[in-house]
Amino acid sequence: MGYEKLTSKQKKYYLAKIERVLASNKLFLQNDFSLPDLEKETGIKLHTISYIINSQINHHFTDYINLKRIDYFKGKINDADWKGLTLEKMIQACGFKSRTTGYRAFKKHLGIAPSEYLKLYRVHSPRSY
Q: How far is 67 from 77, CA to CA, in rounded Å?
């Protein structure tokens, strides 16, 4: 059966499996994570994964993974173990290959740079005097 002939139920199943594997293994944190890696982890054929992400998420694979990385960044910026990290280390911890790649993804998907996001949403501890 071709991926274009998948039923709605099959599409939901594949999408749920992709999401589950990505969430449980945090594969998107690997800076060299690729579509073939996801194929290997899920057992879903490459073209089917690509089709599911494109048709159900309305993004290409790279954008989808970068959105996962951005969401991870958003969830971690106020964690105690991230307080001492530089922005570059934070970006790398999210799976981006470089600071530039992280900045491009943030600008594309959020409209602001990661540094601006930090200024807006990072909670700073009150100073003790």
A: 15
Q: Is residue 13 part of a domain?
A: yes
CA distance 119 to 103: 15
Looking at every residue in the chain, the average pLDDT score rounds to 91
Dist. CA 30–CA 33, nearest whole Å? 5
- What's the predicted TM-score (pTM) here? 0.89
| DSSP character at residue 29 | G
State the residue range of the domain holding 16.
3-58
**Given its phi and psi angles, is residue 2 left (phi above 0), alpha (psi -120 to 50 degrees) or beta?**
beta
Does 70 share its domain with 44? no
> What pLDDT shows up at residue 129?
42
Structure tokens at 121: 């949403």
pLDDT of residue 2 exceeding 90: no
Q: What's 53's DSSP letter?
A: I
- Cα 37 from Cα 39, distance rounded (Å): 5
Q: In terms of Cα–Cα distance, which of 124, 8, 98, 24 is closest to 68?
A: 24
